[in-house]
Amino acid sequence: MPIQLKEENDGKILVVHVSGRLTKADYAQFVPEFERLVVQHGKLRLLFDMTGFHGWDAGAAWEDLKVGIAHFADIERLAMVGEEKWQHGMAIFCKPFTRATVRYFDHANAAEARKWLGEA
Q1: What's the whole-model pTM score?
Q2: For 10-97, where are the E strands, in sequence order?
Q3: CA dist., res. 14 & res. 37, Å (int)
């Protein structure tokens, strides 16, 4: 599955691992689960792992934008972990679209990303 969710730290941290190329259908499973976690835990700290991620098709990009707008204030911290230069650029691009504090980490520094998410 191109989008995998994993709760950590009693649901305070949500790890979202995306791989391959996302389609609109991938969001049909992801969005309800994400929204359930927001209702259950309130503001989330999110580790967005883009290892092996190759982007979105047009329908998925639209769904991603809608999720971002609907949950503008539901993410407290966003650690984006990647391995490509464009993924680092994506972290910079998304900052105006969220209230979350956003930081990019190279895949080799994934442990540092988890540590940052867990800080008070």
Answers
A1: 0.90
A2: 13-18, 20-22, 44-49, 53-56, 75-82
A3: 9
